[in-house]
Write a sequence for this structure.
């Protein structure tokens, strides 16, 4: 578990490492560490908050977004939110250095969030 990251909404770890691979559990747009803290309004604000929460988890593992190799994004309102989520998401990764990614429309997310994002990162090899 990572200090300063939002409390889990279910029985899981913030991240698990195996052989230098770091699997970061999907984060919700909680604005505080309590898993009943409010979500910001709208997909742009929720995407920013999820990315900030993911960066807290990565930082707690001694990593940063540059170490991320794969991302999965789950959208509650895919058709409505896809383009606006992408505009926010794109700002976190430089062109030419973006991770592989999958984006999926879903029928529900914890606490009725609009977006959840998980990541796989790779620890630098020495």
């Amino acid at each position: 578990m990572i200090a300063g990251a939002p409390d889990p909404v279910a029985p899981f770890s913030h991240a698990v490492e195996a052989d230098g691979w770091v699997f970061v559990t999907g984060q919700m747009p909680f604005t505080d560490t309590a898993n009943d803290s409010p979500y910001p309004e709208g997909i742009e604000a929720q995407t920013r908050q999820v990315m900030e929460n993911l960066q807290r988890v990565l930082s707690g593992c001694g990593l940063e977004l540059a170490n991320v190799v794969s991302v999965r994004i789950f959208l509650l309102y895919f058709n409505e939110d896809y383009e606006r989520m992408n505009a926010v998401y794109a700002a976190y990764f430089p062109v030419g250095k973006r991770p592989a990614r999958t984006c999926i429309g879903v029928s529900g997310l914890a606490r009725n969030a609009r977006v959840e994002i998980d990541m796989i990162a790779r620890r630098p090899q020495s």
Q: What stands out?
A: The mean pLDDT is 92. The chain has two helices and five strands. The radius of gyration is 14 Å.
